[in-house]
Amino acid sequence: MASETTLVLVKPDGVRRALCGEIVSRFERRGYELRGVRLLKVSRALSREHYAEHVERPFFGELVTFITSGPVLALAVRGENAILGVRSMIGATHPADSAPGTIRGDFATLLSENIVHGSDSKASAKRELSLFFPDGLL
Ligand code: IDP
Ligand code: MG
Predict the structure, then answer these.
(1) Looking at the CA of 54, which ligand is closest?
(2) pLDDT in tens, the chain (138 residues)
(3) Which residues are catalytic?
(4) How far apart are CA 59 and CA 111, in angstroms?
C-alpha cells in the first residue's frame, strides 16, 4: 500500500467553463478521496512560487497572468499511487497529445488553457500542497 496525497488545481479556464463538478467527480469515481478543497484567487506571489521551476521559460509571464486571471479550485486528492494515477487521468501537457478519456483529452485544445494541474512527483506534491493548504490537511 502506498497511499499518497497530491495537489490538483482546476485552473481558471476549468472554473469558468463550470467543469469543477465533472473533474471532482472523475477523481471520486476512480476511488480517490478528497482531503482538502479550496476555491481561491491565486496571488501573483503564490503563482510564482507554484510555478518556480518554470521561471526562466519564455512562457512564464503568460503562465502567471493566466493562473491569476480568475478563481482556481485547489484539491488535495488522496489514494493508492495517487500522484501518478491523477497525472494519467489528467493526460499529456499539450492537449494535442492527450488521449480521449483524459481530462485534457476530453475538454481542452490549447496548451495554455489545459484545464487542470497535477503534481508530478512526491517532492512536488509535498511542496505544492503546503502552498495551497498551509494549515495542513484533515
Ligand atoms: P504540466 O502541467 O503537464 O505538469 P508543465 O511542463 O509543468 O506541464 O507546464 C506547466 C503549464 O505551463 C502547462 O500545464 C501549460 O499550461 C503551460 N505550458 C507548458 N509549456 C508551455 C509553452 O510552451 N507555452 C505556453 N504554456 C506552456
Ligand atoms: Mg508540471
Answers:
(1) 1
(2) 799 999 999 999 999 999 999 999 999 999 999 999 999 999 999 999 999 999 999 999 999 999 999 999 999 999 999 999 999 999 999 999 999 999 999 999 999 999 999 999 999 999 999 999 999 997
(3) 117
(4) 11
Query: What is the pTM for the complete model shown?
Result: 0.98
Cell of 43: 496571488
Host domain of residue 21 = 3-132
φ, ψ at 41 (rounded to 5°): -95, 120
Residue 118's identity, in one-letter code, is G
Residues 6+ apart with CB under 8 A from 1: 80
For residue 85, tell me if it sits in a domain.
Answer: yes
Query: Is-contact 72 9, C-beta < 8 A?
Result: yes
Contact 6, 83 (CB under 8 A): yes
What are 4's three cell numbers? Answer: 499518497
Q: Is residue 55 part of a domain?
A: yes
Query: Which residues have C-beta atoms less than 6 Å from ligand 1?
Result: 59, 62-63, 93, 111-112, 114, 117, 120
